[in-house]
Amino acid sequence: MVQTRRSTGASAPITLTSSDSHPESSKRRKAASADELETGTSTKKPARKKRKKTELSTDSEAFPVRVSNPWKIGAHVSAAGGVENAVRNAAMVGANAFALFVKSQRKWDSPPLSVENVDAFKRRMQEFGYSPKHVLPHGSYLVNLGNPDEEKRQKSFNCFLDDLQRCEQLGLELYNFHPGSTVGQATKEESIALIAECINNAHKATKYITIVIENMAGSGNIIGSRFSELKGIIDHVEDKTRVGVCLDTCHAFAAVRAPFSALQPFYCVFRDMTSQRKMDGISTFDAEVGLSYLKGLHLNDSKTALGSKKDRHENIGLGTLGISTFRHIVSDPRTQDIPLILETPTFEATEIWTKEISALNCLSNLVDNSDVPETEHSLVNEITSLVRSHVVNKTKKVSKTRARKQDAMEDHDSDCA
Ligand SMILES: [Zn+2]
Ligand SMILES: [Zn+2]
Description:
- The chain has 417 residues and is of the alpha/beta class.
- The protein has one domain (15-416): TIM Barrel (Alpha-Beta Barrel).
- The protein is 39% helix and 10% strand.
- The protein has a seven-stranded parallel sheet.
- Helix 2 (84-92) packs parallel to helix 3.
- It is globular, with a radius of gyration of 22 Å.
- One zinc ion (ZN) is lined by residues 138, 178, 214.
């Protein structure tokens, strides 16, 4: 039996509209598929009927209990159908924090947020009890603020600024983005200065949002795989109260450079927090960048080896980082009260996130050290069997679809014969 430090009192939403509280089982409700997260689009059809809004208490069956925990653990949920849906999707997986795209992350232009979307988002934030400081929107993958080509950089900046303005419209405080690349046309120092210049210009064009730079896996000309590069950007930023860093565990693990040593800063961040070494990773981050800049983490295990430079996310405990890494992270007081966001595969089944979130909440509450190996082992087994079952289901679905397509082609061929 796992003992916990704190009672796990629910912080579930207080009241909901009838449309919010529609009793959907988690099985029926498929939130962000990996594909959907990538494209920001959904194949889900909109509800046919809109029910009249009335205040009703939450259907506890529909929402898992959200544990009270100083470590704010959540996931990057789908905003398909409207940004307001992200809030509900977060609650559906028991998240105490969440990430979302505030527009399609693969298009340069998207229609503006409607007043209805903004109002519904704000209303649901209140209803479900989320604080803006635990929401970490993610930027477009198209944006490259480090591009030395002025025209292309300007296009990126316009898209970036549009995202920031959307966040402020929604009352959000943080915005996470990938710093960019030299595209082989500039030195890293030059691109770092360009990224910082864009951040400075964006600060002037917005009111309060904090711009959060994500560390990267370290391939090619990409900026941001070293603490020194993140610090380099921050050094050029004029308003340092409105800039920060989000550490992605998978990227950090992939970015470690050979020769691999336990003293490698990123490696230590996630492996040696509890070791006796004086210079653990968070301390290294504190020394090289500054702990006050740590605004969030992306909790992803890795499919690839230390130093692979590959960005391949794996479910918690099933990859090369291992579950103990995540126990260290969600037990370290320095990672409290900031968004800790899963970007792990769901195979179109958000039950996996529900399980991972509850596992991480459990790990951050462990008190009895003797229980740790046993608890970690059983949590990994639970996650493994859930992931396996969904991989099997997805494989079956793909096979069925292929078979249907094959049948259709054969029918077509015989019609044409
Ligand atoms: Zn990212
Ligand atoms: Zn990430």
